[in-house]
Amino acid sequence: MGGGVRAGKWFAAVPMAVLALATIYPLVFTVNVAMKTRREYVLDRFALTESLRWDNVDAAWNSVGMARYFVNSVVVVGCSVALLLLLGSMAGFALGQLRFRGSRALFLGCLSALFIPFQVIMVPLARTMADTGLLDTYPGLILAYVAQFLPFTIFLMTSYYAGIPAEIIDAARIDGNTVYGVYRRIMLPIGRPALLSVGILDALFCWNDVLIALLLMPSAEHRTLMVGITALRGQYSDNIPTFAAGVLIAALPVLLLYLFFQRQIADGVTAGSTKG
Amino acid sequence: MDDRSGPSRRPPARPRGRFWERRAPYVLVAPAVLIIVGLRLYPLLLGVNFSFTGDGDRNGEQVGLDNYTALFDDPLFQQALRNVGLLVLLLPVAVAIPGLLATFIYLRVPGHRFYRSVYFFPAVLSPVIVGAIFNLVLAFDGPLNRLLGGVGAGPVDWLGDPDVAIFAVVGVYIWSTFGMALVVFLAGFATLDPALLDAARVDGAALRQVIRHVIVPGLSRTIQFVFVTTMIGMLTSMFGLLYIMTSGGPEGSTYLPELYIWTQQGQLNRPALASAASTVLFLIMLVVGLAQIAILRRSGRED
């Protein structure tokens, strides 16, 4: 063992611990504030809360309308992810396993859409949605999310399916399965790990989005959670504990996903860097 | 779903069935391709086209490059472009921090598993959540200024001072996303040959030398990937932070092209001008994207 590397390691442990604290503290601070009464907050916002009080969370959930926003987010994210996984796995199977004319061009076409950020197409897209009556509707926002995250989903599903031995499909075809049968009976079950990973990432992307929802779902009763938080900030600037409680509600599902699926999230994030 | 009652004896597909069977690959990709073409590629053309028409009274008229002239004359857009330049300058910092941290985690600093989990968490939070949290943390009488006061430094108006605000926002952005790059770096480390590292250790090499002669050359592809994805992220995913933390202020000092597009389209009702700004942003992205393709090509040949 070289002493140089080992000394460096111990030297690094201190700033790394400080950084970890700097990462955790803002979150702890917010949770602590959300537990305080307004009076407590005004008197001393730093001291540990006197008790775990859920009044603010209750107020944010019921009287501020977070419950409504929460349901909106769950509906939109659920439908978007289901559609993304269906369309993404179909296209990924075709592009990754089936040889057909134009498959390479189609794959590259899908990839090129990765380089079109939403900001670039948001003006014409909003206009198209308005023209087709989809503006400020659930299907409109769901379609926009599907269009936004489909290239990424196809990319991951294609590279996953491309790694599956062709013999499996050949065997299934000899057994009399149609291509559609192979998709339903072989490819969907075999793709489960990739579908889980990409599905969680898509769910995070949709849940965390604010720009697309702000643009396409303008009316107050259609707000998603993230849009709701931005509205909350204006209305409750003099009631920070309630605001913090709203932030907590919006972050909790993400925290749960993270605790259970950290590995899948990391796998999805890094897939593009190791394959390419 | 399961119809295994003698699948091998299934009669040959009927002609109608064969028609769909032969076109199966196209049927499978069709919905995805329709959505991507209709809602991603076509709007791009529509938007470019739109940027050459007028707003307001001149709605629908061809106005040539008028929008682009107005755009580059607008001090707010100039500020947005200057801020893009600032992001480019800060890019090496945003790449080096996760790179160094990943190195230490890879070398199994005590507690490396814990650090990895903690650092990565903010990266999965919405920019809105992160921005909301930092509205509290960076408040004038908030925790950060209190900490500074504790070491004798005066309070800073993090989000209210035009010279400071953009650095505060970019700092928060880096705080919330370095975990993403960290995880990508760690995936790159997993492909590194451990024998090289062991050899360096046996030789008693200093950490600096190990980084320079073993890690950087071995990870060149990952480093390039992180550079490009971090740049794209800075250009396209700061909207939520800006929107909730500063809304472009104070004095327009924290504008970025994406917020400019939003403001022109949503608030000021100048969609054609917004389209021109979109086209400029797309050109910036195109340069970044082409760089990435070139990088992937080159590393593909190395493999």
Description of the molecule:
The complex is a heterodimer of chains A (276) and B (303). Chain A has 276 residues and is mostly helical. Chain A folds into 2 domains: 3-53, no CATH class; 56-274, MetI-like fold (Orthogonal Bundle). Chain A is 79% helix and 0% strand. Chain A contains 13 helices and no strands. In chain A, helix 12 runs antiparallel to helix 13 (240-274). The longest helix of chain A is centred in the last third of the chain and has 35 residues, at 240-274. Chain A is globular and about 75 Å long. Chain A starts with a helix and ends with a helix. The mean pLDDT of chain A is 88. By secondary structure, chain B is mostly helical. Chain B has a single domain (66-302), classed as Orthogonal Bundle (MetI-like fold), CATH 1.10.3720. Chain B contains 14 helices and no strands. Chain B has helices at 15-22, 24-50, 66-73, 75-106, 112-120, 127-137, 143-150, 165-190, 194-202, 207-218, 220-236, 239-245, 257-267, 271-302. The chains are: A mainly alpha (276), B mainly alpha (303). The interface between A and B is large, with 104 and 110 residues.
